[in-house]
Amino acid sequence: MHILAVDFGTKRIGLAWADTSLGVVLPYGVIEEASFIKKVDALAQLIVSDHIDRVTMGYPLGLDGRENKNTERVKKFTFELQKRCQTPIDYTDERFSSQAADKLEAGASRDEKAAMLVLESYLERQKK
Question: What CATH number should be reported for the domain holding residue 117?
């Protein structure tokens, strides 16, 4: 199964990919389109063309565990993405992923590293 993790940002969207049969999480690029809709379209096109089986979106909760303005942006983005592709999409808590990404020494962008952490968290959750 090919799984794509998405670290949504208003400027850039970081991506990470895993094939569950390989058990390896890899950076998968960054989407930097100018508008919200172009970002949605670019990601939907990538999901379809790269035969992604499942998507997990980083879900930005506040430190108190509550939803906030960023959470609403991600939900809106996910809603628009789901209208464009039939791939199942769920959420993974992404609190502290950007800070943890800064500590990784992988040869990937901060956005990709944050997506990699989201995907690793998702895969760990699936094992349980």
Answer: 3.30.420.140
The pTM for the full model equals 0.90
CA separation for the pair 30, 113 (Å, rounded)? 10
Residue range 37-69, pLDDT digits in tens? 999 999 999 999 999 999 999 999 888 889 999
Q: Which one has a higher pLDDT value, 116 or 104?
A: 116
- The structural domain count of the chain equals 1
Residues 30 and 13 sit within 8 Å (Cβ to Cβ): yes
The two three-digit tokens of residue 76, written as one number: 């809106």
Q: Which of 124, 102, 127, 128 is nearest to 5 (CA)?
A: 124
| Domain boundaries, position 90 | 2-127
Higher pLDDT, 121 or 105: 121
List strand residue ranges (DSSP E) for the chain, in order.
2-7, 13-19, 24-31, 54-59, 89-93
CA distances from 125 to 12, 24, 45, 76, 119 (A): 26, 15, 27, 24, 10
